[in-house]
Amino acid sequence: MNLAANANTALYASMIVYTLAMLAFTWHLAARAPKVADSRAAADVVANEREDVLVGAGAPTPAERRSATPYAAGPDFEESLKSRQRGSIALMLTYLASALLVASVLMRGLAVGRPPWGNMFEFATAAAAAVGATYSLLARRNTWQWLGVFIVTPILLVLGLALTVLYTEAGELMPALKSYWLGIHVSVAFLAVAFFTLAFAVGLLYLVRVRREERPPAKPGFIESLPPSQSLERTAYSLNMVGFILWTFTLIAGAIWAKQAWGAYWQWDPKEVWTFVIWTVYAAYMHGRATAGVDHRKSMYIALAGYVAVLINFTLVNLVSTFVGMHNYSGM
Amino acid sequence: MSTDTNAATEKDSKGSKGSKDSKDSKGARGTERARKGMRPDRQEPTLPALGTVGMLRWGWRQLTSMRTALFLLLLLSIAAVPGSIFPQRNIDAGRVADYIAQNPTSSPWLDRFGFFDVYASPWFSAIYLLLFISLVGCIVPRTKVHLSALRSTPPRAPARLQRLDEHAELTTTLSPEEALAAARQVLRRKRFRLHSHDATSLSAESGYLRETGNLLFHLALTGIIIGMAVGHLLGWRGDIILAEGDRFASSAGTYNTISPGPWVDTESLPPFVLSLDKLHVEFNETPGRSFGTPRLFDAQTTLQSAPGAPASSENVSVNHPITVGGADIFLLGNGYTPVITVRDAKGSVLYREATPFLPQDGNYRSVGVIKVPSASPSQLGFTGFFLPTAEPTFTNGPVSIFPDTKNPEVALSVWEGNLFPGGAPQSVYTLNTDEMKQVTKADGSPALVRLKPGQTYQLPGDRGSITFDGVKRFAGLSVRTDPGAPISLVSAVLATLGLILGLTIKRRRVFVRVRPAAPGLAAGVEPGAADGADDADGRPTTVVTIGGLSKDSDSGLAAIVTAISTGVHDRLAERTDRS
Ligand code: HEM
Questions:
Q1: DSSP per-residue codes, A84-133
Q2: Contact A214, A235 (CB under 8 A)
Q3: Which residue from B1, B63, B64, B66 has its CB within 8 A of the most atoms of ligand 1, so it is best to mutate?
Q4: What pTM does this model have?
Q5: At what angle are helices B556-578 and B529-536 packed, to 10 degrees?
Q6: Interface pTM, i.e. ipTM
Q7: Angle, alpha carbons B114-B115-B117 (nearest 5°)
Q8: B207-253, pLDDT tens digit by residue?
Q9: Are strands B166-172 and B448-451 parallel, antiparallel or unpaired?
């Protein structure tokens, strides 16, 4: 059995299924927008007033307290049957596609007898698999069908790029990468990135949602069918929080590995610099969010900047020669 | 929370009732703050007469505020970036020199502002030192507050529990005491701390570990920094280039380079003896994108912990250092040492050594220098390249096309004159040609030496000969100690633990209040059959109000409120069963 060839077949198959899932999610969103009648009902729902006995960090800012908007997806928002069915179909397709992608990554790993992230191609596919799998595991419980298209589309983009630009025959690892700490360090990093990615998508939707809550458009769109901005913000926060914990672990495992490989756990090589930058930016986000008087929207901008740093870390730092340091193992 | 910046500002303006005649700019800001509606009722917005102590206090409070920490964190992340863009001296001084040579206009400025030494620059240090001070200044008061919070009782229930995040109200035929007891039981099982400020209410609080975790996290951050400082002060590293067959005896003078921390006594380095028996190296030979990439580096060595001590065979490879006398020995580099012999015109040997040439690229095109001070009439110097697999035509100059020794060759130019102008010490890898001139052949063209192993070149004009005898590999070994590393590691693990506690545990307060129901109301609110029957019996009915509050998004809070309601119902059911 040729595992490497099977891994490629599974990869192509997963891309086809992800494409179908993407279409289904779009189709689902098209059916989601609340009808104006729903919106009226929602307008009557008055936001709970909250008594701040436990004042301080975490209390909502006044701007967030007036969450009553013409079409907040409050308790009265009823998702249509059509929309729900389409959402389920899209989710099913996503499960299948993610399973295929994870299988592809595993088979590649077995084919080369090492963790399957020794070069940029493997790196990109493994990261995409982590995002797909994390979304698949969390989506149903949290009814995140609305998020699907914003996750599946970037996955497809990354896979497409991986195949066209980054493809490398599976080969052996460079000696510096032969360490089980690499396995730990990188797999946790992927998981962290998966959470940051979900949080990024939710964060962007949050920003759009608050804006439209403040200045409601004439006709409600699917944005108006999302959970209210406050709740989106909390979702993004929770996801970022998990990502941040995992990233902290990534940082530590990376330092341990660096100590074994190069004799010093920290020497500010570009990859380490960016891992650190990401960590401090997200720490700043956590702080901003916990500081009374800092608007949650401003904190969210910090988190988004953190994600930009994540992207830079996984692309430019691996590929561009200005960043060449000891981590240069991209195989390009 | 005590670190709430608003609270701090509030305290500020309260504490500033001083004399009215200080009219400095600080005061003006104070006025503005007061006008902005914090204290609209105050008659004369008095200016904070801060004085030196006050100013210091004010500054300290600003520095240790959470906003400042937030700002410094962002600043630190931005300040770290240039170090990944510009070459850094601590990583590769050679690349810095190249960069400076290529960018003669901008480089002096970049250098002046520390862009080639970002992580040792004053501005970077200033940011992290401020952050460190802020951190300590933050931990101490928070720990005090938290310690007293740990001993305090939950606060009195607010007047209107219906306004809390989660709330519920139910009517029961239990007596107020029984209802409270039921609620107490549920909350105790959920490990809440309980207190009754009066007979009709119950206050409960849980999640103290959140702040404990948070403090542990911040405290552990200081631990990491302390570990790094200890490593800097007490750690040292020394680098050696060791050719196959050579022996190295460790002492302060025998390392190629040694960088001890300020508090290291270089007389007490571990006195081990290490010889390199063989360096195994493999490169990928299958054509394709990864052609020529390294596959294996493994140094087979013989190690004695001190001269005369029993010898043992040890393998050092990438990711697998060996430890001796508290120091770790890492294999960090490798390359080639061509063995070169230089003879004078009479044939007697002037120089015979395995000379390390430093690799410049992935295919190990290596540069090196051979200095022959004993040559006469004037000293001789050779500089040039070693190519493990020479591209034979040299159309693009001396180039190597594969990292292993498939077609080794040296290509050298020849210089004569004064090797050491001014007697100044110089690197063994560079040739100072200030007082030297290139040796030419009879026709006036420069003499170029190209030799394969075993070949000899007769230098023009009776200057003798040079022979390339063969080539050995060398290992670049680094010996390092870092006594701070364990401190940092333990702290990092504690930080992660604290982070998990601090972020996942919820600080919750739950209040329960009971009051007698207004007559006739109970049946309407709670139309259960059993209750109705009891009510008809004329028993007193009780309204139980439950309110829960959490610091942040908390899906578990509703479940707790529900559990209390259920607890009250269950108690009633139990009693009905018994009666
Ligand atoms: C060295 C820099 C610092 C880093 C990396 C950092 C990081 C963090 C992180 C990640 C959190 C959220 C985690 C948690 O809630 O357990 C946090 C919370 C917090 N930090 Fe920091 N911090 C730093 C310095 C400071 C300083 C100087 C202060 C003092 C003003 C401070 C005060 C706080 C407070 C009060 C919280 C709790 C927020 C809450 O109630 O959830 N931190 N910090």
A1: HHHHHHHHHHHHHHHHHHHHHHHHHHHHHTS-S-SSHHHHHHHHHHHHHH
A2: no
A3: B66
A4: 0.81
A5: 50
A6: 0.84
A7: 65
A8: 899 999 999 999 999 999 999 999 989 999 899 999 999 999 998 88
A9: unpaired
